[in-house]
Write a structure and sequence with these properties.
heterodimer; A: 136 residues; mainly alpha; 5 helices; 0% strand; extended; B: mainly beta; Porin; 16-stranded antiparallel beta barrel
Chain lengths: 136, 387
Amino acid sequence: MTNRATRAGVVTCLASIVSWFALSAPGCHMDNAHLEGVDISTYPVDVHDDYALFTVRCSKCHALSRALQSGITDDAYWADYVERMRRQPGSGIAPEESPRIQRFLHYYSLTVRARNAAPAPEAVPPPSAQDGGDAW
Amino acid sequence: MVKRTPLLALILVVSAAMAVLTPRSSLGLERNFAGSAQLDYAFLATQPKATPSPIAVDRFITELALKMAVDISDHFSANIKACYGCHGFEMAMGYIDYRVADELNFRVGRFSPSFGAFNLRHDPANHHLTDKPLPYDMGRMLRFEQWGQGVLPSPFPDNGIEVNGTHWFGSALELDYAIYAITGFKGDTGAFDLDFQQSRTPMYWDNNNRPTVGGRVATTFRLSPVTDVTFGASGQYGKFDPELKHSYAIVGADVSFRSGRTDLRFEYLARRQQFDTSNAAALRYEVPRNGGDFFVKHGAYVELKQPVTNWLDLIGRVDGMYREGNVVLESPLAKKSSVLRYTVGTMFTLEQGLRAKLSTELWDFSDVDEAGHHTDVTVHAALVGTY
């Protein structure tokens, strides 16, 4: 290994680490608490575990935005979508986990539909535990 | 022409059947579009004045993909995916699935056959570094022309049929399998290696009358609600020349450990590649009477991805290849050549669906290049979006 290559490697590694610390600094970046996922603070408490399951299983192969930005808001469509993902080799999604992921996506769809229907983002009503009931 | 007629006829018949039998009302239902775009700039820090060929890098590389999936019924679906990359536009998918049960699915058309663990994540939106592991490299590695790319450049869409399925034993054990017959990789008569460019260039049909066959089996163990481990094995065998004189065989093994959103992945691939020895003067080394008509290319990687926050992932990877066997006269490789690469990278989520990737790679080649280098450093910066 040449000295030049070693120096270049060290410099670029340090640059990566410095940029990480710089971007980690308080106030240095936007509100990013839910950049990869969604804010579930207004969701029913029993859906929180479903969301955790969704984040762990679905991020195994792709970004969560794949599902969250798919534009799907129909429960039957979500059911087919999640089943198709479950059947992917090595998905790690057990058959009994599929309904739980669908349940989170049902509540997520409610917020998307509300946001699309609302005149302004601040007017979005939070979903209640009764929203959608067992209809999903 | 006769040899490819059955497959083409089958695709045409199935396509026509889909068009005729699909209820009109279903055409507007359950159709999903998805895609990704990545722009990567690779900079060779140790040779800023190097020419793109044969060194490669110091350039923008764009990869685009658009996919449509249509669920026509509970058992019947279709997928089409078009990609744009270094080779221009490519039909990466164009297949139908007919699923009898989770355990029995028939896939017909153009698709990437099941091989290894990485190929499912080959889209730049689905892996966290800008480029692929060396065993799956498709022209992004340094000195890719000398090395003839990876062991199995990914993706590798091909025409054929695959039978696959998955089954859960309780909620702790998942078993997946796939077997397939496809056109296979191509090479000219007298070729020394597979010709990957010819293999993915229209015309897409086979250059010989012998399909390539292969399969994969994998099992996933659930260790806890957020922890699982997957073991997989894959194989593929076929003839690549029009005269059916020379074969290639690729084998692979993989282990993936996942806990929460932390991933530790390992894969090993090897390709045994026969070649023509009738013109011994074109080869650098003497051809032994027995066993001198092939080389073996090994490749492996181990990769760790650790999420640090909701917007930052750290990635570390060590990958490499080892090639053993004769080489053509003008090749800079030796009878035994190796390359190792060490990568550290970060992936920033800028907003949902938009990511920035930074990485640094340290290369260590067993052979020197024209500039006398054994080692080099490359830096990648990329932006990738999913939609």
